[in-house]
Amino acid sequence: MNRQQFFNRYGISEKKLLDSELSWEQLVAIKNHFEKTRKNLEIDANYVADRLRTFDRVHMVKTRIKDPEHLMEKIIRTKRENPAILINPENYNCIINDLAGVRALHLFKEDWQKIHQFI
């Protein structure tokens, strides 16, 4: 996806990018780094999910890894909301805390406490 396609898809203007004090090249560098490390996140998320599946109170487990383009959009939004934050390819994964997610579903309300203890 090129710059203009990204702007169109996510409703971002050149001004929003400028307001974020990030360059397009910085965003692409973060996206490229994330794509290289994404497999490790999948491995980690799957490990946690597999462990949760062994617990009898867990009905279903799902995992997800953030889409690289959504990451770029979120970084722009985060920088615009808090311009003092420095985001770069070396630290974005410490600032953006939803790069991977694991969701455990249970059938009974009271099961959450036992699942919490298991985790």
Q: Count the beta strands.
A: 2
Which stretches of 5+ consecutive residues score pLDDT under 50?
none
What's the total helix number? Answer: 6
For the largest sheet, list the strands in their spatial order: 1-2
SSE order in H/E notation? HHHEHHEH
Report, as a whole number of angstroms, the end-to-end distance.
39 Å
Task: Specify the biggest β-sheet.
Answer: 2 strands, antiparallel
β-strand amount: 5-15%
Shape: elongated
Walk me through this protein's architecture.
By secondary structure, this protein is mainly alpha-helical. The chain is 59% helix and 10% strand. The protein contains 6 helices and 2 strands. A two-stranded antiparallel ribbon has the order 1-2. The longest helix is centred in the N-terminal third of the chain and has 30 residues, at 24-53. The relative contact order is 0.18. The mean pLDDT is 96.
Question: What labels describe this entry?
Answer:
119 residues, two-stranded antiparallel ribbon, 2 strands, 59% helix, 10% strand
List the helices and strands and how they pair.
Elements: H1 3-10, H2 14-19, H3 24-53, E1 60-65, H4 68-81, H5 92-95, E2 100-105, H6 111-118
Antiparallel strand pairs: 1-2
Summarize the structure in short.
With 119 residues, this protein is mainly alpha-helical.
